[in-house]
Structures are given as C-alpha cells and as structure tokens.
Amino acid sequence: MEANAAFFAESFLHILSFWWLIIPTIVLGLVVGAIPGFSAANTIIVLLPVTLSMPPEHGLIFMVTLYCASRLGAGIPAILVNIPGTAGAAATPLDGYPMAKQGLGQKALAISFTSSIMGGLITTAIALVAMPALSRVGFYMHSVEMVVVMLFGISLIASIAARDTLKGLIAGFFGLMIGSIGTDVVYATPRGTMGFLELYDGIPLVPALVGLFAISEAFLVIEGESILSQHSRDKASKGSWAQTLEGTALTLKKWWHVTWTSLIGLVIGVTPGAGAAIASFVAYQQSRTFSKTPELYGTGHPEGLIAPESANNGVTAGTLIPLLVLGIPGGATAAIMLVVMQYHGVPTGLSLFRQQPELGYGIFMAMFVSYLLMALVILPLSRYMSRVTLVSTTFMSPMIIAFTLIGAFVPREYVFDMYLALAFGIIGYIARKTGYHVAAILIGVILGPLMEQYMLRALKMSDGDVMVLFSSPLGNLLWFCFFATIALPYLLQRKRRKREESVFSEGEG
C-alpha cells in the first residue's frame, strides 16, 4: 500500500476513532509523568499483562499515548515545585521554576504544554514523511560523534559559570566526579563506591535529580511561609484564563524556536542509547547560545522553557523510528513495545511496512492524534494546576520530601536510594546557601558517565589513539559546530559592545 495523502488521511480518521482509549490514557500519562520517579516504562511494565491481552493495535496505541503524555506531564512538577522527576525534564526547572516563583506558574505551564505539543506534532509529522532517511541517522552517530554531542550539553556548565566562573566550574567538576562513581565501563573496577554494592551500577539518576532540586528546595522554602513572595502570591491568586492564552500565544509566536529545538530532540532520539536528558540540555545550550538575550536565561525566560520542553517531546518520535524501521529499540519504552509486538507476532523493519503498513504508520499517527487531543485535555488545566504554588510551605515541604523519597525508591526499589536522595538534598541545600548552582552539578552527574562511556569505547576501538576523535567527517563537522557555538557568544557580545561604544561616541559628538 502506497503511503500517500489519502492513506495518511484515512489513517488519521481511523486512529481518531480510538479517542475513547486515547483520552483516558492521556490522563493516566499526565499523572504518571507528574509523580517523581515514575515513568511510562515503569507503568507499562506494571500494566504489561493488560497490554498483552489487548489486540496489537489497541496495545500499541495505549503505549504510545502513555509515553507521550508522561513526557509532557514530567514538566508539571519541574515548573511548579522544582522537581524534575525524570532526566528528560532536568533542564525544565532552569527557567520554568523561576517563572513560577514570580507568580507566573500558569503562564509557564501554558508555555510548557504548548511547546511540548507543538514539538511533538512537528517531529511526528516529519517522522511520518522522512522515516527511511531518519532511520539511518543511527548508522552515522557512533562513539566519536556522541562524544561531541555530549560536549554540547556539558558546555552548558560554562554558560552557568559565566555568572560566577570559579563556583560554576567547581560545581560542574564536582558533578563530574560524582558521576564517575561506580564500576569502570572497561575493566569493571569499583570507583568511589565506598563499599556500597548499590553504587556499583553508578549513581542512580532519580535520587540525584529529586535530591539536588526538590529536597534541597524543600529545605530552603520551609524557612518561609510560601514558595512565592507576597507580590508573587497576589499575582498568582489573581490568575485568569488570560495567562494561559498569553503563554499559548507567546509560544505560537516563537514557532521557529519550537521547530528547530524539537528537531534537535528528533535527531538525538533517533540515535539508540541517547535520550531526552541529552536532547534537553543540548537544546537549552543551543537556545542560549543563539539568543539575543542570553543573560536572561535562568531568570524565568520563556525561550529557556520552550527549548527543553520542545526537545524532550521531539525525542518521542525519534525513539520509535529505529524500533519500527530497524527493529532496534531506542529506549526503555520502545524495548517494552518490541516485547508486545513480538508477543503478537507483529514484524519490525521493512516487513512491517510491507505486510502491515496501516499498523507501522498507524503508531506514529497515534502519536500525532495523542498530541492533538492533549491540547484539548491539558491546556485548560494549567490555571488550576498552577495554584499548587499557593499552598503553605507548612504542608508543601513535607509533601515534597515524602513524594520525592517514594519516587527515589520506585525505580530500583532500594531503601538505600531514599537515603541517597536525602544526601543529595543536603548537598543541594549547602550548594544553594553558598552560591553554587545545582544545575551545574546535575549536568555533570547525568552527562559525565555517558561521555566517559562513549569516549572509552572510541579509544578502545582505536587502541588508545586520541586522534580517533577527529577521524570522522561527521565528527569533524560536529567539532566545528561545537567550537563555533562556544566562540559565537563572545564574538556577538564583542560586536554588540563595539556598536554600543560607537553609538555612545556619536552621541557625545
């Protein structure tokens, strides 16, 4: 069957007829995404018997919708209470939470939801049309190329350090040191585990996330009566539908920013082993680099919220491409989907699109329809969700700590991880009190081990020759782009300063 416009229109109407399944799954996904430590993969595993008992089309629609909705839902606690429950939402609080603290939580949620939905729709549409070409990206993104991609994200530490260079770099290197805890990826030699078997697999991400951001924030806000200042409380309590419409209109106005940052997520998502965390940090770093007002990032700047949310929702379409076209799952959720497809005898690769094209393309169409219906379900809720910030810290702080400790326990079911989250909470609290940026620590914890893994893999294949990092044409192009984006802000700042000096001198004359 030829995939033409008529085929896609028929597929769209067919998937839309499953609204009775998609809408309840969206609600479930939003709840799952908003609970720290939970994820689409965890929920699908719990509900796997139910999924296997469904017809294959119903089961795949359910899993795809849950995956998309949970990705969008993860931004809710990240914005309102500074809890990035998943690594993909780790960059969202950098500008989302400052907006919420200014009493603009409703507007921040509207920006987050709109950019997530737009990013998901754009990348899903591109995936439907350009699936064969995109599936080959994974063949070109090897260890060398991934090392450079990681550097894009890690260089965000330098951007954060621009405000206080010494403290920013210390925080970043401290995060890289923590990230190196665990067994060596080549020789499996324990490093910095202090005898704890629970650390042999490295620092678990969720306890580090919720500890550095949520628990440390709970320790801070408990010193006052509210997360918000009195002025921000007055502004938030007077919130109306106007803030939701303003946030939506602002995001639609910045459609180009949404487009190119979501494309970063799509390309990184296609690469097996990469993920939403890398995409979010890289998109945030690139957004800040090419911004005309980079100094506003980290203070509640809308573009700083649009970039990571567009990128991590762009990853959703990218992750499924290698699964369906090559039979290689691009992430945990895709791996579970592969199990369901194999259980029902559904083929992957070219056989899927030759034998059952309506199912192969239908999975992406289900993602497209899910994002459309999410706009109707989630945007009206932003006004009511934002009122969480008005709750007194007497109740809010204990609730944050309790939920985050449960979230830290869920992924591995180790009580040790709850103590680890508390330890990271104390580290984050001390860092905030002494002027160190916890985001720089977190970047090191998340991206450091991944970069080490790809670096050592590249060196192992080249017998220790460092020049292997410059042996790939695509890698060299990425190196050029990396150094260009590092130098560009300084060049633009210098040019802007010269222009201001010339205008000032002309004014004096």
Give a topology summary.
Blueprint: H1 5-16, H2 19-34, H3 40-46, H4 48-53, H5 56-73, H6 75-80, H7 93-101, H8 105-134, H9 137-140, H10 143-154, H11 156-161, H12 165-179, E1 182-183, E2 190-191, H13 205-221, H14 230-237, H15 241-253, H16 255-270, H17 276-289, H18 302-326, H19 332-343, H20 350-355, H21 357-378, H22 382-385, H23 393-409, H24 415-433, H25 438-461, H26 473-508
Antiparallel strand pairs: 1-2
Helix pairs in contact: 1-21, 2-5, 2-21, 5-18, 5-19, 5-21, 7-8, 7-18, 8-15, 8-16, 8-18, 8-21, 10-17, 10-25, 10-26, 12-25, 13-23, 13-24, 13-25, 16-17, 16-18, 17-18, 23-24
* Main sheet specs: 2 strands, antiparallel
Total beta-strand segments: 2
Q: Provide the helix percentage.
A: over 70%
> Strand-and-helix sequence, N→C?
HHHHHHHHHHHHEEHHHHHHHHHHHHHH
Mean pLDDT: 86
Identify low-pLDDT runs: none
Structural overview:
- This protein has one domain.
- Helix content is 73%, strand content 1%.
- The protein has helices at residues 5-16, 19-34, 40-46, 48-53, 56-73, 75-80, 93-101, 105-134, 137-140, 143-154, 156-161, 165-179, 205-221, 230-237, 241-253, 255-270, 276-289, 302-326, 332-343, 350-355, 357-378, 382-385, 393-409, 415-433, 438-461, 473-508, and strands at 182-183, 190-191.
- It has a two-stranded antiparallel sheet with strand order 1-2.
- Helix 2 (19-34) runs parallel beside helix 5 and helix 17 (276-289) packs across helix 18 (302-326).
- It is globular.
